[in-house]
Amino acid sequence: MSHNAEPRNGFMRLKPERTRYDASRTAILPVPFERTTSYGQGTSRGPEAIIEASAYLETWDEELGIDPSLAGIATLPACDPRDEDLAAALSEIESAALAPLQEGKFLVTLGGEHTLTSAIARAARRATGRPMGVVQFDAHADLRNRYMGTPYSHACVMRRLVEDDFPTLAIGLRSLSPREAEFAERKSLPILWAHEMARHPSQTESRFLDQLAELPEEIYLTFDIDYFDPALVPATGTVEPGGGSWYPALNLLRLLFQHKKVVAMDLVELAPIPGHPASDFLAAKLIYKCLGYLAQAERFSAAVR
Ligand SMILES: [Mn+2]
């Protein structure tokens, strides 16, 4: 551990020349927002834990043979709305996300609870002014109309986006209520169920690509960490058995970045367990893998232009 005079507190604790906002492809936005969690709590400590764990990532991506950090990763001040009113708090989050998106940054939001996704996806669509699809990795459908008295619950976030005319694709679902199932059926929402992925693993990638092809070119990616099996990631509020594992998830993410223009992403619902850094580190590494897939996709599109 070096004792540098310059404090490095951002994502991956990179050298200052790789974290200058103006020169960075990526901006990291910590949003320790937690108001409506229902079962376990602690997602407000997610951003801090991800940034802490990210200091131990290697910058080299051995799969891609590149150093994705060379494109620059700036870490923004945390956005932590104090407004009691959830709609007002969400519009504050939307405003914080809008400027970096308008400046063309690849915005990575660290949650926090899943509720924040609706604000950031709206900001992404406003910034581009074009149709925006939402790809959701999650254990839960999050399609409830209201939950525990509020329409802004984490359990309602995808319902809000569907109502706001975002085309969606959900991956890895394995828990929903009868009314959510009825809503998904009525709206013909595309879903890649966890049980299908487990039963027909060799077909997962082609089915994913078929469903992805139906979405707009520009994509907002929301990754709920409970997508993963709780044996791999126990640090989340609402654990569900039968979740995804590491390499199959990376394969789908790589395809997503290859085939679509992903403009922003979030990683939500990490509820760190003290003394158990594995979940935090996985979350940090997942984000960095996505930055690698982004860099590779952009390098490829620059080369063929
Ligand atoms: Mn969720």
Describe the structure.
The chain is α/β, with parallel strands linked by helices. It has one domain (20-304): Ureohydrolase domain (Arginase, Chain A). 37% of the residues lie in helices and 14% in strands. It is built from nine helices and eight strands. It has an eight-stranded parallel β-sheet, sandwiched between helices. Strand 1 (26-31), helix 1 and strand 2 (73-75) form a beta-alpha-beta unit. The longest helix is centred in the C-terminal third of the chain and has 27 residues, at 278-304. The protein is globular. 49% of the residues are buried. The model is unreliable at 1-7 (pLDDT under 50). Manganese (II) ion (MN) binds next to loops.
Keywords:
305 residues; 8-stranded parallel beta sheet
Separation of the first and last Cα atoms: 43 Å
- Content of β-strand: 5-15%
Strand order of the largest sheet: 2-1-3-8-7-4-5-6
What integer value in Å does the Rg equal? 18 Å
Mean pLDDT: 94
Number of strands: 8
Largest sheet: 8 strands, parallel
Number of domains: 1
Query: What would the principal axes of the Cα set say about the shape?
Result: globular
List low-confidence stretches: 1-7
Under CATH, the topology is which? Arginase, Chain A
Q: Find the structural class using helix and strand composition.
A: alpha/beta
The set of bound ligands, ions and cofactors reads:
manganese (II) ion
CATH architecture annotation name: 3-Layer(aba) Sandwich
CATH superfamily heading: Ureohydrolase domain
Specify the helix fraction band.
Answer: 25-40%
